[in-house]
From TrEMBL:
It comes from the Eukaryota. Pfam families: Acatn. The lineage of its organism: Eukaryota, Metazoa, Spiralia, Gnathifera, Rotifera. Keywords: Membrane, Transmembrane, Transmembrane helix. This is Acetyl-coenzyme A transporter 1. One of its GO terms (biological process) is acetyl-CoA transmembrane transport.
């Protein structure tokens, strides 16, 4: 294997690990929602906790700061990445000692405040990693930015949701681990929530230290690279220029159309996304059982991004995934509606798992396609800001819809709230895809230069990094 291939694989692994940390926080937060449900939190309390997701919807406000202010010795990305991750580690370690008390007592406001801080920090980390991934893969295959993001987030989400909830459960551990091994039963699982949170914080520390050692002390080398990529790495944009670039992007008609799509496309799936697991909990299905049901779809989360790593028309895939996702949401809602009559049958869980796999397959086709398209059109010179802008718009639409459906659930009959909201969302989804089908096709066919503020002019030259970290062009 050549050194170039080794570097390429190293970049992929780096991005996967960094997105894994994001997925860990996202999965951990979803687990907290299940813990709250098991302690009988109301729909209104769940809606209040959903405000923790809003930093991802507002991160564009500070993205230009992270993109334009940095220390040259560390670079645009490491300047912010390491302090952010270490701070998250400190918060997780500190929070581990009183998290269970907050959950048991349903102290929603302090719990929400702590997680808003964590989400603000991980949203900032997302800005940095999005920008870095665009630069790393812009001259090879931009779709790998999406693939790395999806795989990393899935693994992290799996660890902090399924693994946490399953092995923290005393019932699961006693039944499937201790009893087969003839070990005495205990009132706790393999670990407690406190221990998991504590060691999660330690994990943030360890990964940050390893990245610091690798990148801060690497030896200088000769490389032939794309001169534009090098300029984008070392050219320090003025803060005002970075903020103004956001306004300039919205002067483009294609950007305005894509913004409307990102803000509204989740309307068809809002209730399915944010009420399904909570509804299962309402029917008495334990959180560790819900975690087990979510294990089989994890295989799809890995296979789909790898399969789609070479696609060239991502919005085409995005559109083709929309109708199947609506259909799977409808079938899943009907099945959940009849849970009281079929929960004790032998086929209940196998069919539920199949329906989860169908829904999640369509979901991840759309996710990989959307993120891949965003990575393709993001101008590397403002990569962090550009990717953050697109992600912020999408997250804002999702956050508003998630809060809205949870609050509306309070006004509907408790036993039918989920079914009613899923049905209403599907109707809106059918209207949405009818309105935007041809717009998606037209945007997908635009040349990538149409999305840039400045057209690129690529030249390959040899760049030498001397021991004083200067850059010489020969």
């Amino acid at each position: 294997m050549s050194s170039k291939e080794n570097i390429y694989i190293g970049h992929i692994l780096l991005i996967i690990i960094l997105y894994l940390l994001q997925g860990f926080i996202q999965g951990f937060t979803s687990s907290i929602q299940l813990y709250l449900a098991s302690y009988k939190a109301s729909w209104q309390q769940q809606a209040t906790f959903s405000w923790v997701f809003y930093p991802f919807s507002l991160k564009i406000l500070w993205a230009p700061i992270l993109d334009s202010i940095y220390y040259y010795r560390f670079g645009r990305y490491l300047t912010w990445l390491i302090p952010i991750q270490i701070t998250i580690g400190i918060i997780l370690i500190t929070m581990s000692f009183y998290l269970e008390s907050l959950l048991i007592n349903l102290e929603i406001l302090p719990l929400t405040f702590i997680f808003i801080i964590i989400y603000f920090l991980i949203a900032s980390q997302d800005i940095v990693v999005d920008g870095w991934s665009v630069v790393l893969f812009s001259s090879s295959n931009p779709q790998w930015a999406s693939t790395g993001q999806t795989i990393g987030q899935v693994i992290g989400y799996f660890l902090a949701s399924t693994v946490l909830i399953t092995f923290e459960s005393s019932n699961f551990t006693n039944t499937y681990i201790r009893e087969p091994l003839s070990l005495p039963k205990r009132s706790s699982g393999l670990f407690t929530l406190q221990q998991f949170t504590f060691f999660g914080g330690i994990g943030f520390f360890i990964i940050s230290i390893i990245i610091s050692v690798i990148f801060f002390f690497k030896k200088p080398s000769y490389k032939t690279i794309n001169v534009n990529v090098q300029k984008k790495i070392y050219k320090k944009l003025d803060l005002f220029e970075t903020y103004s670039s956001i306004l300039k992007l919205f002067q483009k008609q294609c950007m305005r159309k894509f913004t409307l799509i990102l803000l509204t496309f989740e309307v068809g799936f809002a209730a399915t996304n944010y009420m399904t697991t909570l509804s299962l909990s309402e029917y008495g299905i334990t959180r560790d059982t819900i975690a087990l049901v979510n294990i089989p779809p994890v295989v799809l989360y890995i296979i789909i991004p790898l399969y789609m790593s070479r696609i060239r028309r991502p919005l085409k895939w995005f559109a083709y995934g929309y109708i199947p996702r609506l259909i799977s949401a409808l079938i899943l809602a009907i099945y959940i509606h009849f849970i009281p009559d079929i929960i004790h049958t032998s086929y209940f869980y196998p069919i539920l798992i199949i329906l989860f796999c169908m829904n999640q397959a369509a979901l991840y086709i759309m996710v990989v396609a959307r993120v891949g398209f965003c990575a393709r059109i993001s101008e590397p010179e403002i990569a962090g800001t550009y990717m953050t802008l697109l992600a912020t718009i999408s997250n804002l639409g999702q956050s508003i819809l998630s809060t809205l459906v949870l609050y509306i659930a309070n006004w509907l009959p408790k036993t039918h709230a989920y079914s009613i909201e899923v049905g209403g969302c599907i109707i809106f989804g059918l209207i949405w895809i009818r309105l935007f089908w041809y717009t998606l096709r037209d945007l997908d066919n635009l040349p990538v230069e149409e999305w840039y503020l400045k057209p690129p002019t690529d030249v390959n030259i040899t760049v030498f990094y001397d021991t004083k970290d200067t850059v010489k062009y020969n």
